[in-house]
């Protein structure tokens, strides 16, 4: 238990983790602030609910939302890169090399998922404080009874979007956090390989970011949204929960395989 707490404190005290977590929270707070500024002194009849002013579906903070979606992969991979190489923990811990590597990868995934969930959760809580629970207006500009007739079953969780937008937002916080954890886990796996293991953390994060952007471009060219990470970070894409599970499972699976194969070459500890 003491070893785990020591591990956790070392992770949280990294400068890289603090900077990335600060950027996530800056985006979170900026998104709410832009929405508040856009609705300041508006008649309540035209103010949308706290659910509609959440960072991901809000139309008033589109710039911040685009930045968040674009930087999500880079931030998720940067939160963990270099952890294990630079902390000097291994000589101080009474565990074998294998357990150290696995523990490092799992902790990176968990803490990255927590960082994203916390930032998005803070944004929703701030929206609760600034906007009404149920607004007279909505982002579709449609009457409530019309919304029930405009459910798009091909879009992920769209029925929840109409029935209970707060559950819809919570589901997206969950899937984005799990996906971010997978990116961190994959980055740890890549860091265990001979080819990429010697790269500086910034370069390794850049490799992960470029790889996911290439997948995004391929998804656009081949019209296969299921292989694009933006299809699961942005709301309203025509993807399924099975596609999400397969995509996320591939990320975690690839990371696990790379860690298993690369643990013997993890020589810098």
Considering DSSP H and I runs of 4 or more, what fraction of the residues is helical? 55-70%
Cα distance, first to last residue? 22 Å
**Oligomer designation:** single chain
Radius of gyration: 20 Å
What best-fitting shape do the alpha-carbon axes yield?
globular
What profile does the largest beta sheet have?
none
Mean pLDDT figure = 83
Q: Can you tell me the residue ranges where pLDDT is under 50 for at least 5 consecutive residues?
A: none
Strand content: under 5%
Overall tally of domains: 1
Number of strands: 0
Provide the structure class: mainly alpha
Total helices: the number is 10
Secondary-structure element sequence?
HHHHHHHHHH
Characterization of this structure:
It is a single chain. By secondary structure, the protein is mostly helical. The protein has one domain (2-265). The chain contains 10 helices and no strands. The longest helix has 34 residues, at 97-130. It is globular, with a radius of gyration of 20 Å. The mean pLDDT is 83.
Summarize the structure.
The chain has 269 residues and is an all-alpha fold.
Break the fold down into its secondary structure elements and pairings:
Elements: H1 2-12, H2 15-39, H3 62-78, H4 97-130, H5 144-147, H6 158-163, H7 165-191, H8 201-222, H9 230-233, H10 241-262
State the main characteristics.
269 residues; 0% strand; mainly alpha; globular; 10 helices
